[in-house]
Amino acid sequence: MLKGAGAISDLQRLTVSLRGGYEQQPQCLLFSFTGQLDAYSDKQFIEFVSGHLGEVSRPVVLDLSRIDFLDSSGLGALVQLAKQFQQSGHNFLVVGNARVVQTVKLVRLEEFLHLQPDLDTALGRLSAA
Known about the structure:
alpha/beta
């Protein structure tokens, strides 16, 4: 595992049900979230990620491995961010747990979202690129 890789411990409250944080890793900008990504938190999720991209040209990793619940609004937020990343030229990967992976695969978005099974795999893919 790369030095500094892993869950971000200091997460700020975005909504009652969603917490998020970010840090610059050597090879990416890593966002980490915990809680629920749903109709009550999708706007704050998008604003949080978009607001911290700035002029960063490095790849983005969205770590959703600690998300307990993902609904259609959360999926819509991920699609909206993916389109934003593509338009701005950012490479990106989404890391999910079993629940997130199942939901994303149900709507066949795993390739579009560059879904990865865990953070180590995602960071390994960035290092190999």
